[in-house]
Amino acid sequence: MPDADTTPAGGDADGPPASVRRAVQQSMERLSNSERKVARALLAGYPGSGLTTVADLAAAAGVSPPTVIRFTARLGYDGYPQLQRAIVHEVNEGMGSPLAQYGDTRRSEGEEVLDHAVRTIQSSLERSFSELSSWDFKRVVRLLSDESREIRVVGGRFSRLLADYLSSHLHLLRGRVQLMSEPGLERLAAIADAGPSTLLVVFDYRRYDEAVGQFAVDMKSRGSSVVLLTDNWLSPVAKIADVVLTSRVEAPSPFDSLVPAMALTEALIAALTDAVGDRGRERLERLEAFDPQARHLEDQA
Amino acid sequence: MPDADTTPAGGDADGPPASVRRAVQQSMERLSNSERKVARALLAGYPGSGLTTVADLAAAAGVSPPTVIRFTARLGYDGYPQLQRAIVHEVNEGMGSPLAQYGDTRRSEGEEVLDHAVRTIQSSLERSFSELSSWDFKRVVRLLSDESREIRVVGGRFSRLLADYLSSHLHLLRGRVQLMSEPGLERLAAIADAGPSTLLVVFDYRRYDEAVGQFAVDMKSRGSSVVLLTDNWLSPVAKIADVVLTSRVEAPSPFDSLVPAMALTEALIAALTDAVGDRGRERLERLEAFDPQARHLEDQA
DNA sequence: GCTGACCTGAAACAGATAGTTCAGAACGCT
DNA sequence: AGCGTTCTGAACTATCTGTTTCAGGTCAGC
Question: Domain range holding A216?
Answer without folding.
Answer: 132-298
